[in-house]
Amino acid sequence: MDYSKTYESSTKVEFNVMFPKEEIEKEWKQTFDAIASRTNIAGFRKGKVPKAILEKVIKDEDIIESLKEVLLRKTFNKIKEEQGDKNLYNVFKEDESEIQRDKDYNFKMVFEYWPDPELGDYRSIKVKGHNVSVSDEEVENQLNLILQSFAKWNSVEDGEIQLKDVVELTMETKDENGNEVKEYTGKSAISINPDIKDRLKPLREALLGKKVGEEVECDIEIESKIAHIKAKVDSIRRKEASSWSDIDLQANFQVNSLDELKAEQKNIIFMNKLKEEVE
């Protein structure tokens, strides 16, 4: 392999690289043997397949694809070693010819590098300090939010509907003329959340205290007209809080104890508050 430097600037350096056909032939055979050693063909043990069969199975395209990586790595290592520039950090190829077994292989290799910076008089630079602190209460609030995210939805078989439950219903809704309102007819699920302000607010209020199997009726307003809903409670689901003993801290947070998680969350809160101060 031969190479020559063709261009150099403050950010990159370029080399023309040439592998003579004799070296390509040698590398081609080695790459073929490497692919052959891991090729499985029915009726033969791995590594014992006759070469005549392998030559029919292994395509030139497969050899070329692997050979490009081999030659690139070989070129990279040689140039880095001989040039001795530790700041060369990125590499890519340009203007490459096709690899052919009986011809020289030419391409351009471009290195990018990070030159050694020249520092000015940084000692005179004044940096504004930021008074940022994190309270225990903030950390506990953050941990509670995390704990809430692990809460599980459980079915309520014999209890009454409470705020924040999710209720599955079978509804039948008709307008003032007795016509079916399809949007509110059939199976549906609603959250018993008083903060939701929509047409079904009267239904949410009517459902509070009901059990599975019970029915409710109420009126709702649709486009300034009154519609009547009949709804049967099919199921009730309620979010049950988890405890830290139920959570695998190592699997979910890569920490071994709750104290480690607290310290990690405190640092996250601190960094977020510091970022806000700086911005």
Automatic annotation (TrEMBL):
Q: Which domain of life is it from?
A: Bacteria
The Trigger factor ribosome-binding bacterial domain sits at 1-144
| InterPro entries xrefs | GreA/GreB_C_sf, Trigger_fac_ribosome-bd_bac, Trigger_fac_ribosome-bd_sf
**A GO MF label:** DNA binding
Q: Which GO terms describe its biological process?
A: protein folding; protein transport; regulation of DNA-templated transcription elongation
SUPFAM superfamilies from the UniProt entry: FKBP-like (SSF54534), Trigger factor ribosome-binding domain (SSF102735)
This one is known as Trigger factor ribosome-binding bacterial domain-containing protein
